[in-house]
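Students often ask why we bother predicting the structure of a whole assembly rather than each chain alone. The short answer is interfaces. A chain on its own may look different once its partners are present, and contacts between molecules only exist in the joint model. In this exercise we take two input lines together and write out one structure for the complete complex. Read the inputs first and try to guess which parts will touch.
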Amino acid sequence: QVQLVESGGGLVKPGGSLRLSCTASGFIFRDYDMSWIRQAPGKGLEWVSDITSNGFIIHVADSVKGQLIISRDNARNSLYLQMKDLRVEDSAVYYCARHRTYGDYIDNWGQGTLVTVAS
Amino acid sequence: SYVLTQPPSVSVAPGETARITCGGNDVGSKNVHWYQQKPGRAPVLIISYDSDRPSGIPERFSGSNSGNTATLTINRVEGGDEADYYCQVWDSNSDYVFGTGTKVTVL
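Now the answer. The structure tokens for the assembled complex follow.
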């Protein structure tokens, strides 16, 4: 079955950096576009960034442009999110998410990893 | 950027019908998808392409989309339907857009 397992979350000070990872299994990772989606405590879902299956095309939400960088390593079945210059408002659960093939929705989500930005 | 607006909360008695709206400019021309999220859990897709149910989703869940409003309908509501519900579209300018979310409370 499809599994997406995030890791790398934790407590970081404002201005700090963090790298999230998502390890995929149960499907052919290199065939799927992927996204990071976040959810601040008690708030709604916010799409952050996505990357095509081959890694050639990346989209980033305006709210995090220049701050969060998505990447992938298909040989390792892994998706990454490099986060820098973190702010308190970046505190959230970050979900790794798989796009439906030829679709415009998410068909599988990881369990999420919590990032807390606080001094 | 494209905005989807949902009512913050909907309350319904068991066995009754819950309707959750998702408003957006000409949303009827877009594909709307719906997710259910229970506390502490990741979202789960319950409706795709306005009204398609993935396998395993009860027939009690249905969707429609027209004009400026998409609607998720939950018939014969059960206690286990208590959750947050989000609509979502893909927009060429905004990429993946999620609605503001609706908390369904079963009385």
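Check your guess against this: The mean pLDDT of chain A is 96.
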